[in-house]
Amino acid sequence: MSILEVQNVNKSFGGLKALQNVNLSVEEGTIHAIIGPNGAGKSTLLNCFIGKLIPDTGTVNFNGQSLLGMKAHEINQTGVSRVFQTPEIFSDLTVYENVMIPCFAKRDGSFSLNALSRVKQEIDVHEKAEQMMEDVNMADKKDMLASSLSRGDKRRLEMAMCLAQDPQLLLLDEPTAGMARADTNNTIDLLAEIQNKRHITMAVIEHDMHVVFSLAQKISVLAQGTVIVEDLPENIKGHPKVQEAYLGGAH
Amino acid sequence: MIDKLQNNDRMLMTLFTLMVLAGPILLAPFGAGYPDLLQRFCIFGIFAIGFNILFGLTGYLSFGHAAFLGVGSYSAVWMFKLLTMNVIPALILAVVIAGLFSLLIGFISLRRSGIYFSILTLAFAQMSFSLAYSVLTPITNGETGLQLTLNDPRILDGANTTGSLPSTNFFGLTMNSTAKFDFLGMVLQFNVGFYFCAVMLILAFYLAMRIFRSPFGLMLKAIKTNQNRLNYTGVNTRPYTLAAFVISGMYAGLAGGLMACTDPLAGAERMQWTASGEVVLMTILGGAGTLLGPVLGAGFIKYFENIFSKINDNVLHSWFSFLPDGLEDLIVWVLHFFVGKGWHLTLGLLFMMVVIFLPGGLLQGASHIIDWIRGKKQSSSTQISNPNSMPAE
Amino acid sequence: MSKQLTRRGVLKSGAVVGAGLAMPTIFTSPAAAYTNEPKGGTVTLGFNVPQSGPYADEGADELRAFKLAVEHLNGGGDGGMMKTFSSKELKGNGILGKKVKYVTGDTQTKSDAARASAKSMIEKDGAVMISGGSSSGVAIAVQGLCQEAGVIFMAGLTHSNDTTGKDKKANGFRHFFNAQMSAAALAPVLEKKYGKDRKAYHLTADYTWGWSQQASIAAATEAKGWKTVNNVLTPLATTDFSSYVAPVLNSGADILVLNHYGGNMINSLTSAVQFGLRGKQVNGKDFEIVVPLYSRLMARGAGKNVKGIFGSTNWHWSLSDAGSKAFVKSFGEKYGFPPSQAAHTCYVQTLLYADACERAKTFNPCGVAEALEGFKFDGLGNGPTEYRKEDHQCFKDVLVVKGKENPTSQFDVLEVVEVTPRAQVEYKPDHTMFKGGSLGKCNPGA
Amino acid sequence: MDAILLQILNGLDKGSAYALIALGLTLIFGTLGVVNFAHGALFMIGAFCVVTLQRILNISTVTIDPTKTDFLGNPLKVKTPYIIEWFGEGAGMAIINWSVPLAILFAIPIMLLVGYVMERGLIKHFYKRPHADQILVTFGLAIVLQEIIKAFYGANPIPTPAPEVFRGSFDFGVLIGMAENAVIYPYWRLVYFAFSALVIAGVFAFLQFTTFGMVVRAGMADRETVGLLGINIDKRFTIMFGIAACVAGLAGVMYSPINSPNYHMGMDFLVLSFVVVVVGGMGSLPGAVLAGFTLGILESFASMNQVKGFFEAIYLPSIDQIIIYLVAIVILLVRPRGLMGRAGVMED
């Protein structure tokens, strides 16, 4: 069953057509990779999922519900979480506080004037946050300021923050960009583990073919604003259209 | 040590309460133990605590908070004029009206962030000031300020037959009654108005502490450090900032109401943007984002304004009279630029120093000194997160 | 409805019970007949003047005068106007034998700050009298405070009708003149100088003082046959008056009245002169400018622009009566330049207060107030003067001045054109512009 | 018609004052990324350069004239400025008379120095700090500067008259066939307007046509890249700060005959010019100029009694008190980044 259904999405900026008739469907419980050369429209597409951009035409449905016109926090509340290219965390807060915030957001919704209860006494949130710290192996770092973490740990923290919300769909925007090989492998392991344990659907935008082929169960290839191929990983590798797109149609 | 105190709520609260209640005794040796200044310490403490809930937690720098203080004062004085000299209805109205007013201004201003937000609040406050100073004179009594008169109705208090203005009171306890005791050559003054304000300050401090420690407070801190992430975590930041804005507006209203309670006059100048700038100075000087800092900063600036500004050349000469004449004159000549009527200069310099060297405010400075005295060289600056970053949109 | 009534009743009875309980003995200050009764060998006066803000220079001049007055009261210096004062109670031995001490404070020309400063003088320093100030808003605010606290307020420079009009207080006294008196003094001179058939255009500072000044001068000149063409309110914060001055010439008016004070006055006058209004001819007459309230210190800021422009002032150092001469001499010798009208009124107020204490033989505000009420005196620079009992306003001659054409020094900015006698400027206490409000009863505090 | 023409003239004049200050403010913000609350103080220092020059020119010898007396009855001390002794009555008086234009020459090196010291001594350390810190430290600096000026020059305004030839006003009405005195405008204000236009054009030309300006503009767009090219951007930015200080200072010099300099004139202008910059769009030079003139003209029109009357009918009396703020609020709500602002500037 497909959890995210993208149909005939078009988006242009001025004269530039960034997306043309994009169709995509992400199956529940799978890791779906979206790849493509620079400027293919990957980020534009992702931004259409999360409410940052609104497509000119077409539909984006999540669990049968249209995401168009919704604000970022509303989309998140329906169960879509996002991991950014550079980790977006609360750098002035401690690691533990970072994880608590999504727990509160999950429990209390998009706004709650919870001004008189004490954070200390929110036992359910603490249980959840402790659990998440364990899950991403960061329990020993929970009192550090988030800004003092290494890049890999920041990514890990961001992942933990997303998972703390128990999302149905996790969007990852180049989760290994700029990482050292070892960190990349750690991230792959982390994602694979999450997939195994929680069966969360993921849509990954990625450059690194190593990552894509280690994780993805399905791949969509985007070129010049359209999806040229959508298939299983093994079929993508030698696909002529894909090679053409990446090599710029070198004849 | 101060950091430790900051984290141990019960101890902090107890210590704070004791210090505030003992104010008339503790401050008398510094020449600040008289009711008016003590009341001001409390009132501006409340104002700064409230401002800190907005600026210290969310990072939104408002340059128009004095407007809410002014509105609170006007409402309270009107209550004194129309209903009763009892302070409770006046305070309730002050807080409610300031809350409504801040809801309106906040709703519009918070559509923008960064300097755009600052300028919007500044514009609203300047408009309020201009209107209060001239156009709205029937309500505000313009330049002179809204005052009580003998022929105000005061429905609940009944007819005034004494021929003199009634005093504000808390169910009969008049705000301006003072008990004086001679003690070690000082006169200790215990004033009802001060203790009323002190109780309000303690309550306000307690409430602020609860907000700091609540999930709501955590969300506000999150807004300051990364609003974008918070949006993608399913949190709608607008109502949070608006709530913080309104809460701090109500604090300002309470402070304004208390000002009217201790001195039933409301002047338009207290709404001017420089008055808003003053609360910014207080908060930063003491330490934005900390619990104690704003109270400290408020006390510091009010002490400067009321005590430092009274040091004139005569006083200076009497201090340095032990020195040879030429040297005495030289020192007095140099100092006279910085004290007395030059107190603004000293304040400006001090403020610059704090912003440049002590981003955590005087509180950070104090904890440095305490650490240094205890021989602990480790800096505590990592504990105080950078308090001054502006929110992202 | 009934619910509301009962709640109201409860609140009300609460208040009554409270009033019954009020003032348990601990809350009354120990054994003083009135606020800050001086117990030792000294008595403290509080001088509350603007030391920061736009009127700081006037404040500084007031402070000089206060210091001089204290020196004279304590027997120092040459005695100044104490020698010419018609009342001979002051002996140079302080007040009632107590040496005079003083404390100073900064009003910042804000009612809040002024009240805070005055309160600290009363509560901390034990002042029995507060004096000074350079604007009406501050004077009225501090006067109200002194009434509540039970000390005497001797107003400094305050020109608004309200100070001794609708905001008058039993503990407050004003020696300075007011907008109504300015208008009454100016109108006949203007009529004599510029004729009956004139059309006036008013620019008015948009706040209480401006309004009352405008109303007074418009009424007084209209009574002489002038027409008021237009009255434009200018925001207090205006620094560039060009857009207000520009339309004046084309409005058919041939007189411009600037109801401005301080920085506003300097800037609007400068604008008016820049537009060349004074060289123009309208309706076949020379265009003229009038500034109802002049201050020499402020006029200096406008430089040559004030030449030939009429206005009024409370006092000027070039007066040649014995009192003025004595004052100018002792002030000039001490500080090196002549005193301003603000300095004069503050000096006089201090002497008047001291004298009233001597005559009442007490510092009790009620005794002092009684001694001041209806007090007639002379020799303090303004000729025969009376503190009217009904509103605590001094009545005396008013000076009509104009900007001097050929000043000999930087202090020589104004010249006295006419001294309008007291009878012409006097008004009834229930005059429409002074109605509302009442003195109330004097409050000794404590 | 004549009234409208008059207010347009007024608005242009006011607008040029706003635009000049806002231009410097934007220049500093655009190049250095610093929000300079002390910019108004630079304007004030410029005006006080005139006062200082005037004082220097009036340093005098003192002779005693026994035939006249001063206010105390002592023989009058007559002061003769050295300048008159040296150059004779005519030339000496002329120099004193022209002290305002002369002060331009006097002010340029002073303002460059002040700008240099400010940038190297203080602002430099705040490039990497949050905007709120910059606002606060420069706010503190503004207080300090104005208090220093007050300590030396006092609180009262000091008259600084324009040269004799520029007094009086020019009759536009007659020029275009209207009645006499219908549309008159003071000469000095015309000079001020022309001067402002010249300076604004000069700054734009400088940025547009010189290599220095090109580098600075590139730096405004993308500081890091330009830095990577091996160009010493910092040094150029210091010079830029000096130029911005100069623009503000010269505005102050030329404005001094219109408003007698006083210590708080900087703060008076600061709030307004910040509103202008924000309305124009932070970091946009044309925006600052456009907003300056727009707000100047709007303010002038709001002062007309006809306009006031109209607003009074819809319960907005004394519209001139609040017009600027009202317009600022509306513009910021309708156009979030001001009239010509770029996205992403000054929002974090």
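qc> The mean pLDDT of chain A is 85.
qc> done
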